[in-house]
Amino acid sequence: MTRRSAAPLPPPGERRRLREAGSLTPAQLAARVGVSAGAVRAWESGRATPRGRSREAYAKLLAALAEPAAKAGARESAPAGLREGPDPAVVAVRLKEPVPGTRHGPVAPEPSAFTQTPPPSSPSTPAAAVPPEEQDSPGPASGLTPAQAFDALYAFCAPALVRQTYLLTGRRDLARESVEQAFQRAWERWPEVARDPDPAGWVRAAAHEWALSPWHRYRPRYRHPEPPLSDPSDRALLEVLLHLPPPYRRTLLLHDGIGLGLPDTAAETEASTPATAGRLLYARETVATRLPDLSDPRVLHRRLAELASTERLRAAEPPAVRDGSERRARSWTRAAIAFTAALIGATTLALCTAPTGYEPPVPPGETVRGVPPRVAPGPLSEDQRELRSKLREELLHGPERLAPQPR
To answer: What is the pTM of this model?
Structure first.
């Protein structure tokens, strides 16, 4: 019995492009496939891969969306009054980018503080022979143990990721904590992360989400601001970045700092491409208003790299991160076992102490009719007063018993 091969799927970025070309929202596409909108966003960002019947339905729908584009040879432009977002050509001119569809990114990644160090065991294939989209992160190399592959990914991403997270938060300790938490989650889900097309992007998204969590403001450790930077220009740029809303700050860092394209930035931030373009334009205008020297995206990219490299931020060692992840997993397992045992004990106690027979409740009292009402005593008559005084006098003379006397 032969096993049927899985349906082929395009890359994550192409999936998102096909959905937008078909004028479908994630919720509409999810309704057609029979999954949730969050699952569609995870498939388009590369964090998850569809399986089983969902994969087959998803592949058929993408193939149906790709047929009109393949026949026409280009995407048909919609009337200006019916567009949901700005024209891609107008956005490309305002962002100083080529029109979508070209191979070049908005800002060419230069060797800087954002550049990740190559893994210890790099392949022997020359870099020029490998496509650019395959040079971003090391994949799960064959012949390596899970710990060795994790250590290689950590050495590749962690140093640059700590510096990126510092620009998002402005806190050194929170940047290190976010990267450690992201890699601990990656180690807990290592089979899923190892098969991910972009493991570095998976860890980066997890670190950025942890760093930008609004719950950190309630922690006593992060209530007070850290000491400011010594250089006035660096301090001014960091203040402008922290003044931006978190989604705009993250979009600016991914696009102008790291050098991701607009579709990739939109996929990682889980937003539409027009919304991401609007966030990027607003962030650039805000930075240019406060700091006119940084109106050029290339100059802004260089200054972001210089700002990230001013602080000597070092990540923890890979074994320490793996040990922390395993300790946390053991703690959660023990807590779950203790809670289950307590629940079983409480249930057993309730069963043992519960009454075995049915005791009917006492019915409420009823009014008895035909009984004369109770009357309070009135004033004594003359005979009653004489009898009372006689009884009182007889009792004072001794223990004789009173004998009734005829009247």
So the answer is: 0.54
